[in-house]
Design goal:
656 residues; seven-stranded mixed sheet; 34% helix; 20 helices; single chain; disordered N terminus; alpha/beta
């Protein structure tokens, strides 16, 4: 979905996670699907955080995704947090089987999916119990009462019904028999009860769409397209969606609906669409291949949470994309490296366990000095760990997880939309310096989404490359020859010679090469020279200086982050500044090599705090390289930081 925004960006008010009600308008009439408008109060809010929660088979991810798409088309700024079990189908009605989708949308610039939901939609007792602890008192809770049978409640440890025992008295509870209402709405479709029940998520979506004035046409079109081969199912879902909207319009239990105006001042002018991190990364890889005028080759093995990149790129053969789903991780990267040797922009995608398996071939790519992108969508570890939960714990693996001295540049995006630009930057480095490059995203960015301004073609970098075409060295006797390891004096990149080019035959393989000639060499001095040269090539990569956000110029504490912590850190910093605190912020995209001015930046501050979703990996690197007493603030619970939590920790650091 795209929307036009034509106002300049503004500054957020610093309360990124606080929901505030605005002016109320009473007596407004609304028309909707199949109903004449009735008088109900409409309240205007500047932001809302909604969480849909249910069983992993209840369609919560689809429901959240559709609500997000309509919110994007409406023009709100937004940020999402899908959260689902690792099991393909966890036991129904159990706490491990709960799937949720949180959406934060606003009329101004926001940065995170929100700390706590203002509205919880709980499809069963397990969803209620798993999520109610995150919901502040006074918030709205919509409960599917049909699922609160004794057996279902006992399964998750409810001895009495939370709908009757007073435990929810602090919330504005809306008991809705979603299943019964859905079945009643679909009674004329000839569906079995089980088939009809599956549409209850669309009933809930319709209700929430009414409640927050979301557009409806896009969802109806989507449903008809998604179930085009099953028109009866398509129309049943549309009917359930409309029934939910009409229920909100006519029931007395929902006396108020809410408006959140488009974020007309939050973005630069342009055409925007909602995009997830994995989709943005896929588009970035395609754009890089087009800007380099090279075919894009993906050699991959499916692994959560990276598989969506394989799925997406497989749809784009028209852009010269070739995707290969290998039998394992090692075969995937081996094929990709072969494609790099053959002249493609080569990519392999994986997560932490796959990186471990690919490590030997990454070392081979370092030795061969060929461009190769290794996309690591990080998840909780070690080993299989938490496949569907986020973490930032692969940084040291990307830096050092190979035998021998095998330096590899590392790039990390900061937001879902930024994955597009990070992919272009990783490709620039790989192609310019003839080196494998790590791109470190994570599950939070991969599955989360936000508005993305679609760039004009003239904004994209020129990534054009020159292949070797003939001899590049003259011997003492005057003979012209091709030396595969003769280097560009500026970048130290060796020539890229396509196999089959007459006269450019040369050896490849993992055994050490002689400088220049590329012949196999066991000479100690040559090995020392080659090791140092490969390191110097990475150290010499041209990366932008680190930008520091320090508006007061009086801050004595710097918060330094990388990757997906950008949103929570920035939201926390805004909170502190609104409260009168002085604090500086900087965020690293390039982790190897670091920006050249990083050392000078660190020396300007009395205290450096590094929040990470690991046990202090960037802080370890900073302390080792710059001898700075960097303070770690760490979290490894599979979830992103909350802004309030970070703000409290940073405030303590300022006043220590």
């Amino acid at each position: 979905m795209t929307s036009q925004v034509s106002s300049p960006a503004d500054q957020a008010d610093g309360s990124d996670e606080t929901n505030k009600a605005g002016e109320a308008v009473v007596g407004e009439q609304r028309g909707g699907p199949g109903q004449r408008g009735v008088e109900k109060e409409v309240r205007r809010l500047d932001r809302v955080i909604i969480r849909f929660a249910g069983d992993s088979g209840d369609g919560m991810q689809l429901t959240g995704d559709r609500f997000t798409s309509e919110t994007a088309s409406f023009g709100n700024d937004l940020s999402t947090l899908p959260n689902f079990p690792a099991e393909i189908r966890a036991p129904a009605g159990t706490l491990p089987g709960v799937s949720s989708f949180q959406l934060h949308f606003a009329d101004h610039d926001i940065l995170t999916p929100g700390d706590a939901p203002n509205v919880l939609v709980a499809m069963n007792p397990a969803a209620l119990k798993a999520n109610i602890g995150d919901v502040p008192r006074g918030s709205e809770v919509i409960v599917n009462t049909d699922e609160f049978a004794k057996r279902a409640m006992a399964k998750v440890g409810y001895e009495t019904s939370p709908l009757e025992d007073g435990s929810l008295d602090g919330y504005r509870v809306h008991p809705v028999p979603l299943t019964t209402l859905t079945i009643e709405a679909l009674k004329d479709f000839g569906l079995s009860r089980k088939e009809a029940e599956r549409s209850k998520n669309m009933f809930a979506l319709g209700l929430l769409s009414w409640m927050y004035h979301r557009p409806t046409e896009g969802t109806e079109t989507f449903l008809r397209q998604k179930f085009a081969k099953k028109p009866q199912i398509a129309e049943a879902n549309v009917a359930a969606f409309r029934a939910g909207w009409n229920f909100g319009e006519t029931t007395e239990d929902f006396a108020v609906s809410y408006e959140v105006a488009p974020a007309t001042k939050a973005f630069p002018a342009g055409t925007y669409r909602n995009i997830s991190g994995n989709l943005a990364l896929s588009y970035g890889l395609i754009a890089a291949s087009r800007q380099a005028d090279l075919p894009l080759y993906l050699g991959s093995y499916p692994i959560t949470p990276a598989s969506d990149i394989l799925h997406e790129l497989s749809k784009h053969k028209n852009f010269g994309v070739r995707t290969f789903q290998a039998e394992d991780e090692i075969a995937g990267i081996g094929a990709a490296l072969g494609a790099a040797f053959g002249g493609s922009l080569a990519v392999t995608t994986t997560s932490g366990p796959g990186v471990a398996l690919k490590s030997e071939t990454i070392g081979l790519a370092v030795s061969l000095e060929l461009p190769l992108l290794i996309v690591d969508i990080q998840r909780g570890g070690p080993s299989t760990g938490l496949p569907t939960k986020t973490e930032q714990a692969d940084l040291l693996q990307a830096m050092y997880g190979r035998n021998g001295e095998a330096p590899v540049p590392v790039v990390a995006p900061r937001t879902p939309a930024d994955c597009f630009d990070a992919a272009l930057e990783a490709a620039r480095i790989a192609l310019t310096y003839r080196t494998p490059v790590f791109l470190l995203s994570d599950g939070y960015l991969a599955n989360g989404s936000e508005p993305w301004r679609i760039p004009d073609l003239d904004e994209l970098p020129d990534l054009g490359v020159r292949f070797a075409t003939g001899p590049n060295h003259t011997l003492d006797d005057g003979t012209e020859v091709f030396w595969p390891y003769k280097r560009d004096p500026r970048t130290l990149a060796r020539p890229w010679a396509l196999p089959g080019t007459p006269g450019l035959e040369h050896r490849i393989g993992g055994i050490e090469k002689q400088d220049g000639t590329g012949n196999i060499s066991y000479d100690p001095a040559n090995h020392d020279f080659m090791v140092r040269t490969r390191q110097a090539k990475v150290d010499g990569i041209d990366v932008p200086d680190l930008e520091v956000d320090d508006p007061s110029a009086a801050a004595r504490t710097l918060v330094l982050g990388w990757g997906s912590t950008y949103g929570p850190i920035t939201a926390a910093v805004r909170r502190l500044r609104t409260a009168g605190e002085s604090i500086a912020q900087a965020h690293l995209r390039h982790l190897n090599p670091f920006p050249r001015n990083l050392g000078d930046v660190l020396k300007r501050y009395d205290k450096v705090v590094v929040p990470e979703m690991n046990l202090g990996q960037l802080a370890t690197l900073i302390r080792a390289k710059y001898l700075v007493d960097a303070h770690s603030y760490n979290q490894v619970n599979g979830m992103p930081f909350k802004a309030e939590q970070l703000a409290e920790a940073l405030k303590e650091a300022i006043h220590e």
